[in-house]
Design goal:
The protein is of the alpha/beta class and 239 residues long. The protein has one domain: Aldolase class I (TIM Barrel). The protein contains eleven helices and eight strands. The site of 1-deoxy-D-xylulose-5-phosphate has 12 residues, from loops. The site of the ligand NCC(=O)COP(=O)(O)O has 13 residues, from strand 8 and helix 10.
Protein backbone atom coordinates (compact mmCIF):
# COMPACT_ATOMS: atom_id res chain seq x y z
CA UNK A 1 0.00 0.00 0.00
CA UNK A 2 1.22 3.49 -0.83
CA UNK A 3 0.64 6.06 1.91
CA UNK A 4 -0.66 9.54 1.20
CA UNK A 5 1.08 12.31 3.12
CA UNK A 6 -0.63 15.66 2.66
CA UNK A 7 1.75 18.61 2.34
CA UNK A 8 0.07 21.55 4.09
CA UNK A 9 2.52 24.31 3.04
CA UNK A 10 -0.16 25.99 0.93
CA UNK A 11 -2.54 26.23 3.91
CA UNK A 12 0.17 28.17 5.72
CA UNK A 13 0.67 30.38 2.64
CA UNK A 14 -2.99 31.36 2.75
CA UNK A 15 -2.95 31.90 6.51
CA UNK A 16 0.16 34.09 6.35
CA UNK A 17 -1.30 36.28 3.62
CA UNK A 18 -3.52 38.03 6.20
CA UNK A 19 -1.42 37.62 9.32
CA UNK A 20 -4.16 35.95 11.39
CA UNK A 21 -4.99 32.28 11.94
CA UNK A 22 -7.41 31.63 9.11
CA UNK A 23 -7.23 28.92 7.84
CA UNK A 24 -6.12 27.19 11.02
CA UNK A 25 -3.14 25.00 10.06
CA UNK A 26 -3.54 22.66 13.03
CA UNK A 27 -7.23 22.11 12.32
CA UNK A 28 -6.51 21.40 8.66
CA UNK A 29 -3.79 18.87 9.58
CA UNK A 30 -6.15 17.09 11.96
CA UNK A 31 -8.92 17.13 9.36
CA UNK A 32 -6.57 15.65 6.74
CA UNK A 33 -5.91 12.79 9.17
CA UNK A 34 -9.64 12.42 9.90
CA UNK A 35 -10.36 12.26 6.17
CA UNK A 36 -7.90 9.40 5.68
CA UNK A 37 -4.46 10.90 5.02
CA UNK A 38 -1.78 8.64 6.44
CA UNK A 39 0.72 11.42 7.00
CA UNK A 40 1.34 15.15 7.16
CA UNK A 41 4.26 16.81 5.37
CA UNK A 42 5.67 20.28 5.94
CA UNK A 43 8.60 22.00 4.29
CA UNK A 44 9.70 24.93 6.46
CA UNK A 45 11.90 27.31 4.52
CA UNK A 46 14.37 29.78 6.07
CA UNK A 47 12.16 32.78 5.22
CA UNK A 48 9.14 31.05 6.86
CA UNK A 49 7.02 32.21 3.93
CA UNK A 50 4.59 29.40 4.61
CA UNK A 51 5.34 26.91 7.38
CA UNK A 52 6.79 28.73 10.41
CA UNK A 53 9.25 26.99 12.67
CA UNK A 54 6.71 27.32 15.52
CA UNK A 55 4.13 25.46 13.37
CA UNK A 56 6.36 22.40 13.48
CA UNK A 57 6.38 22.39 17.30
CA UNK A 58 2.60 22.89 17.37
CA UNK A 59 1.91 20.16 14.80
CA UNK A 60 4.18 17.65 16.47
CA UNK A 61 2.06 17.82 19.64
CA UNK A 62 -1.18 16.82 17.91
CA UNK A 63 -0.46 14.71 14.84
CA UNK A 64 -1.23 10.99 15.12
CA UNK A 65 -0.18 9.87 11.65
CA UNK A 66 3.30 9.99 10.14
CA UNK A 67 4.93 13.41 10.44
CA UNK A 68 7.38 14.18 7.62
CA UNK A 69 9.53 17.31 7.78
CA UNK A 70 11.22 18.29 4.53
CA UNK A 71 13.96 20.82 4.19
CA UNK A 72 17.52 21.89 3.70
CA UNK A 73 19.82 20.26 6.23
CA UNK A 74 22.69 22.64 5.46
CA UNK A 75 20.68 25.18 7.52
CA UNK A 76 21.67 24.67 11.21
CA UNK A 77 18.26 25.98 12.28
CA UNK A 78 16.54 23.28 10.26
CA UNK A 79 18.67 20.53 11.82
CA UNK A 80 17.88 21.86 15.30
CA UNK A 81 14.17 22.02 14.49
CA UNK A 82 14.08 18.41 13.32
CA UNK A 83 16.13 17.09 16.23
CA UNK A 84 13.92 18.96 18.71
CA UNK A 85 10.75 17.54 17.20
CA UNK A 86 11.78 14.02 16.22
CA UNK A 87 9.31 13.42 13.39
CA UNK A 88 8.79 9.92 11.98
CA UNK A 89 10.71 11.01 8.89
CA UNK A 90 12.94 13.82 7.72
CA UNK A 91 13.32 14.37 3.98
CA UNK A 92 16.52 16.16 3.02
CA UNK A 93 16.09 18.49 0.05
CA UNK A 94 19.02 20.42 -1.48
CA UNK A 95 17.26 23.76 -1.80
CA UNK A 96 19.24 26.75 -2.98
CA UNK A 97 18.56 30.15 -1.44
CA UNK A 98 15.62 32.03 -2.92
CA UNK A 99 14.13 29.09 -4.80
CA UNK A 100 10.39 29.37 -5.50
CA UNK A 101 10.03 25.66 -4.89
CA UNK A 102 12.22 22.57 -4.86
CA UNK A 103 13.63 21.99 -8.32
CA UNK A 104 16.32 19.29 -8.13
CA UNK A 105 17.46 16.27 -6.20
CA UNK A 106 20.76 15.68 -4.41
CA UNK A 107 23.92 14.99 -6.31
CA UNK A 108 24.53 11.93 -4.17
CA UNK A 109 27.94 11.32 -5.73
CA UNK A 110 29.36 14.78 -5.05
CA UNK A 111 27.77 15.15 -1.60
CA UNK A 112 28.17 11.57 -0.43
CA UNK A 113 30.37 12.36 2.60
CA UNK A 114 28.18 15.25 3.76
CA UNK A 115 25.05 13.12 3.39
CA UNK A 116 26.54 10.21 5.34
CA UNK A 117 27.30 12.48 8.28
CA UNK A 118 23.99 14.29 8.44
CA UNK A 119 21.93 11.15 7.86
CA UNK A 120 23.67 9.42 10.75
CA UNK A 121 22.92 12.37 12.99
CA UNK A 122 19.19 12.09 12.34
CA UNK A 123 19.18 8.30 12.52
CA UNK A 124 20.98 8.41 15.88
CA UNK A 125 18.03 10.48 17.10
CA UNK A 126 15.63 7.74 15.96
CA UNK A 127 14.41 9.60 12.87
CA UNK A 128 13.96 7.82 9.54
CA UNK A 129 15.74 9.64 6.72
CA UNK A 130 14.72 10.06 3.11
CA UNK A 131 16.70 12.05 0.56
CA UNK A 132 15.28 13.82 -2.48
CA UNK A 133 16.79 12.52 -5.73
CA UNK A 134 16.21 12.79 -9.46
CA UNK A 135 15.26 9.55 -11.23
CA UNK A 136 18.79 8.70 -12.30
CA UNK A 137 20.08 5.22 -11.53
CA UNK A 138 23.62 6.45 -10.68
CA UNK A 139 22.18 8.89 -8.14
CA UNK A 140 20.09 6.12 -6.59
CA UNK A 141 23.13 3.85 -6.39
CA UNK A 142 25.19 6.53 -4.67
CA UNK A 143 22.25 7.29 -2.36
CA UNK A 144 22.47 3.73 -1.08
CA UNK A 145 26.06 4.33 0.07
CA UNK A 146 25.01 7.28 2.25
CA UNK A 147 23.08 5.03 4.64
CA UNK A 148 19.73 6.72 3.95
CA UNK A 149 16.64 4.66 4.74
CA UNK A 150 14.65 5.93 1.78
CA UNK A 151 14.83 8.11 -1.27
CA UNK A 152 12.11 10.44 -2.52
CA UNK A 153 11.98 10.60 -6.31
CA UNK A 154 11.48 14.15 -7.58
CA UNK A 155 8.45 13.79 -9.86
CA UNK A 156 8.31 17.17 -11.61
CA UNK A 157 9.70 15.72 -14.86
CA UNK A 158 7.14 12.93 -14.78
CA UNK A 159 4.30 15.36 -14.13
CA UNK A 160 5.31 17.72 -16.93
CA UNK A 161 5.80 14.86 -19.43
CA UNK A 162 2.72 12.87 -18.48
CA UNK A 163 0.24 14.44 -20.88
CA UNK A 164 2.67 14.38 -23.77
CA UNK A 165 3.90 10.78 -23.49
CA UNK A 166 3.24 9.01 -20.22
CA UNK A 167 5.20 5.84 -21.11
CA UNK A 168 8.29 7.91 -21.79
CA UNK A 169 7.72 10.11 -18.75
CA UNK A 170 7.56 7.21 -16.33
CA UNK A 171 10.41 5.09 -17.73
CA UNK A 172 13.27 6.64 -15.68
CA UNK A 173 11.17 6.36 -12.51
CA UNK A 174 10.60 2.64 -13.07
CA UNK A 175 14.35 2.11 -13.54
CA UNK A 176 15.18 4.21 -10.47
CA UNK A 177 12.60 2.29 -8.41
CA UNK A 178 14.02 -1.06 -9.52
CA UNK A 179 17.51 0.09 -8.54
CA UNK A 180 16.25 1.28 -5.15
CA UNK A 181 14.58 -2.06 -4.50
CA UNK A 182 17.72 -3.98 -5.44
CA UNK A 183 19.77 -1.83 -3.04
CA UNK A 184 17.28 -2.14 -0.17
CA UNK A 185 16.18 1.51 -0.21
CA UNK A 186 12.61 2.45 0.66
CA UNK A 187 10.86 4.55 -1.99
CA UNK A 188 8.86 7.77 -1.68
CA UNK A 189 7.90 10.24 -4.41
CA UNK A 190 6.57 13.74 -4.75
CA UNK A 191 6.27 17.07 -6.51
CA UNK A 192 3.47 18.07 -8.87
CA UNK A 193 1.63 14.77 -8.49
CA UNK A 194 -2.08 15.34 -9.09
CA UNK A 195 -5.41 13.63 -9.72
CA UNK A 196 -4.58 13.05 -13.39
CA UNK A 197 -1.06 11.63 -13.12
CA UNK A 198 -1.07 9.86 -9.74
CA UNK A 199 -2.77 6.56 -10.58
CA UNK A 200 -0.51 5.75 -13.52
CA UNK A 201 2.53 6.53 -11.39
CA UNK A 202 1.37 4.34 -8.49
CA UNK A 203 0.44 1.51 -10.85
CA UNK A 204 3.77 1.46 -12.63
CA UNK A 205 6.44 2.34 -10.09
CA UNK A 206 7.25 -0.75 -8.02
CA UNK A 207 7.63 -0.58 -4.25
CA UNK A 208 6.20 2.93 -3.80
CA UNK A 209 5.79 3.39 -0.04
CA UNK A 210 4.63 6.99 0.17
CA UNK A 211 3.71 10.05 -1.85
CA UNK A 212 3.62 13.58 -0.46
CA UNK A 213 1.26 15.89 -2.28
CA UNK A 214 0.44 19.53 -1.59
CA UNK A 215 0.01 22.07 -4.34
CA UNK A 216 -2.47 20.20 -6.54
CA UNK A 217 -4.33 18.59 -3.65
CA UNK A 218 -4.99 21.88 -1.88
CA UNK A 219 -6.00 23.46 -5.21
CA UNK A 220 -8.44 20.60 -5.89
CA UNK A 221 -9.91 21.07 -2.42
CA UNK A 222 -11.12 24.55 -3.46
CA UNK A 223 -13.53 22.84 -5.84
CA UNK A 224 -14.18 19.46 -4.23
CA UNK A 225 -13.71 20.17 -0.53
CA UNK A 226 -10.90 18.65 1.52
CA UNK A 227 -12.66 15.43 2.49
CA UNK A 228 -13.70 14.48 -1.03
CA UNK A 229 -10.32 15.51 -2.42
CA UNK A 230 -8.38 13.30 -0.02
CA UNK A 231 -10.77 10.46 -0.85
CA UNK A 232 -10.08 10.94 -4.56
CA UNK A 233 -6.30 10.85 -4.06
CA UNK A 234 -6.58 7.73 -1.89
CA UNK A 235 -8.67 6.08 -4.59
CA UNK A 236 -5.91 6.74 -7.14
CA UNK A 237 -3.40 5.06 -4.82
CA UNK A 238 -5.59 2.07 -4.00
CA UNK A 239 -6.43 1.14 -7.57
C1 LIG B 1 10.29 18.60 -1.85
C2 LIG B 1 9.16 18.97 -2.68
O1 LIG B 1 9.10 18.65 -3.84
C3 LIG B 1 8.03 19.75 -2.13
O2 LIG B 1 7.97 19.73 -0.78
C4 LIG B 1 8.11 21.16 -2.46
O3 LIG B 1 9.39 21.55 -2.12
C5 LIG B 1 7.09 21.96 -1.77
O4 LIG B 1 7.63 23.15 -1.31
P1 LIG B 1 6.87 24.52 -1.57
O5 LIG B 1 5.48 24.34 -1.02
O6 LIG B 1 7.65 25.53 -0.84
O7 LIG B 1 6.82 24.72 -3.06
N1 LIG C 1 7.65 16.18 -1.37
C1 LIG C 1 6.71 16.72 -2.26
C2 LIG C 1 5.66 17.44 -1.53
O1 LIG C 1 5.63 17.45 -0.32
C3 LIG C 1 4.60 18.15 -2.24
O2 LIG C 1 4.97 18.68 -3.46
P1 LIG C 1 3.78 19.42 -4.29
O3 LIG C 1 2.64 18.44 -4.39
O4 LIG C 1 3.38 20.63 -3.51
O5 LIG C 1 4.39 19.72 -5.61
Amino acid sequence: MTKLSVNINKIATLRNSRGGNNPDLIKVALDCERFGAQGITVHPRPDERHIRYQDVYDLKKVIHTEFNIEGNSTEPRFVELVLNNKPAQVTLVPDAEGQITSNHGWNTIKHQEYLKEIIEKFQDAGIRVSIFVDPIVEMVEAAATTGTDRIELYTEAYASGYHHNKEMAIAPYVEAAKAAKKLGLGLNAGHDLDLDNLKYFAQNVPGLLEVSIGHALISDALYLGLEKTIGEYLERLNF
